[in-house]
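User: For a benchmark we're assembling, each entry needs the component sequences followed by a predicted structure for the full assembly. Here are entry 17's components. Please fill in the structure.
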Amino acid sequence: MKWWPVVGMSKMLTEKEKYESKHEAQKLGLFKRSLHLYMIDVGNSNQLNFEIHALHTPRYNIHRFGIYFAASPRHADLLIVLGRPTKKMIAPLKETIRQLPTPFGIMLIKGCEETGTDPEKLNLPNVVAVMDGCPTASEMLGTLLKIAGRTD
Amino acid sequence: MNFMYFTFLFFAFGALITFWKKTSYLMATCASVLAFITSIVGLNAPFSSGIYKIFDGFELSIGIDHTSAIFLLIASISWFAITLYSIDYGVNYSKKMPIFLNTAFLGMFMVLIAKDAITFIIGWEIATIFSYLLIMEHKHSFKEAFEFLAFGEVSTITLLIAFASLYFKNHSFSLVGVHGTWIFLLMATIAFMTKMGIFPLHTWLIGAHSKAPSNVSAFLSAPLTLMGVYGLTRALSISGRPEWWGIMAMVFGGTSAFWGALQAVAAKGLKILPAYSTVENDGTILATLGLSITAFAFHINVLGEFAMLTTLILTFSHVITKTLLFLAVGHAKEALNEESIDNVRGVWKAVGKIPAFSIVISALSFSVFPPLIGYVAEWMTLETLFQSYKIPSMTARITAAFIGILLALAMGMAAFSMVKLAGYTALGYDHGKRAKKIPHFNMNLAEIILVFVIAVAGFLSPLVVRFFGYKEFLSGLLGVPKPYLILSSHPIFGVVSPTFLAVVLGVLGVFPLIFYLAKGKKVKRVDAWNGGEVLREVEYFSAPAYSFTLEYILRKVYATKEVKEKNKRYVRVKDVVQDMYTGILVGARATSLALSRTLMNGHVYSYILYILAVFVLIFFMVR
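Assistant: Structure for entry 17:
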């Protein structure tokens, strides 16, 4: 008999790494354990897409935290806005926000480019977190965990 | 008794003062009220009056007995609503319309109070011709109006043959105390079936009802087909109750109901759907009447009487509800100036709450929603057909069973089509279309009155049954007081109590409503999700898409075909019966062309000369 099943493999491997984010994030109080995301790319340089996509990989495996990507904003609790909106993406962004069921939150990830409108100037409702610069997947996950209230 | 003459006078006076359109319609409204009073008086004390001897063996007489009083009661409610509605609606039409409307109602009134064949034919012909002129009031409706007239004349000619056979048997034109032959019954049945729009004689009805002005559609669809039902009951009272007639009526009625419902499902026009619904309802009425006659033929009086009661309740339900449906749909059509179901979305917001609510209520009544009157009528229909096992004849029993299947299918499809109509017009997405400003006070008033009648007659239907004179089908059971329960048979086979259903639903509905309102649940209404893009007009789930599944499954019946035009593609379905008439039309044209080329290729003046010569010859020969 090996020693590690007794301690627990998941504990050994996953909790070694702490997902920390320096950004402020509000907790979405209504949801107890899980979070459903809908992501809209409003004009980033594709870097953020890769980072978001990395959250699915075994390295991060966000499903184990009960965080899922929904196929439609009508099923989502949290809208992730990637990048600074270009002119033509402002209307679809607003339409997407209109389709979200209340209560909902919006998380802005601005990216490092300076093109496009600053999303904070659009007066979007219920913004729970804003991430400047080029956050890594680890940082993103940290913010998501903060929003889900699972950081303790 | 005087009320009858006053009704006459008011209709006639209304036709005369046509230069004041509103007053003219108002006179017709007053006349309808008087007709209502006449029917109430006649129901309690049947009377006959005014026997005018023209010469020996030929006299005109009018009067009201129990049957005509019931039908007059139903018709007068419908007339009242239509004329009240016309006060506002008629503004858009010419000054000739009040003449035609008043006179057509006068014709129908004559049909209902006629006690002899001549008065009956005169009233029948007046109603037909003035209906034709009324359909012509709408622009570009000549073809449909002429089709209506052609079928109307078919019905008149068969009726003339029927009454001629009656005269040869009895040597009297009277309709009371005479006996008819089978030829009379057959011819009269064809005449009245044409008027009711029974399959396969229904094609004129679709064009005429959908093209006519909306108040005229309401009157064509409700009171005018009522005349057909009245005529049938009259003819049957004259010529006895033969079994073959019952079976024939069941077959034609069941087929008609099924075909009407089937075509209503696929209908795309705003007024074509209610027109097909008329075919369906009249088919159901004819089938129950047929079952009633079959039962009487075998001396099963309980079933016969119940089936007759069913026919009356069905007729009542059809006339009132279809009037409301056509009036409300016409209101929306007039305000938005659109033709198809798809384009008249958002009536609730664009036109008004009352027409939208009226469409919903009438559609619910047609799709058998308790405790409205349509629910009572359809329950009674099914109950009647379930009891057909009591009939000893195997042929009649099997026919009744199969017709029951057809009618049940028809009811289901009627509900489907009504959901399509109400769901897309009254409750559908708002187009953002601006409605035309039209005076609508009287329109709304007429609609509210009819909604009220449908709702109240629904849960007070036991009292309606009692009013029609069938007290033996009312009883009490298990705590339901005496006159609130309708029984379908003795011993009890099936019961319904719309009154108690209304009470229970009210109590169960009030508390959830209070909780719902107290909680203040907010509903967020958004368009369908389209990837963040705004929905274009073609991307909505349209009314044709709603029924396309059925159109595709039944593509052999509907002859479904995808039509490809330059930049437009759509699915077309057709009523196959119409092809038959088109074939007859083509054949007739070809024959007349061949005849005119071979036989009559002379000058038209010489033909007139021949005709005159023959006239003179006959004149001298007869002397």
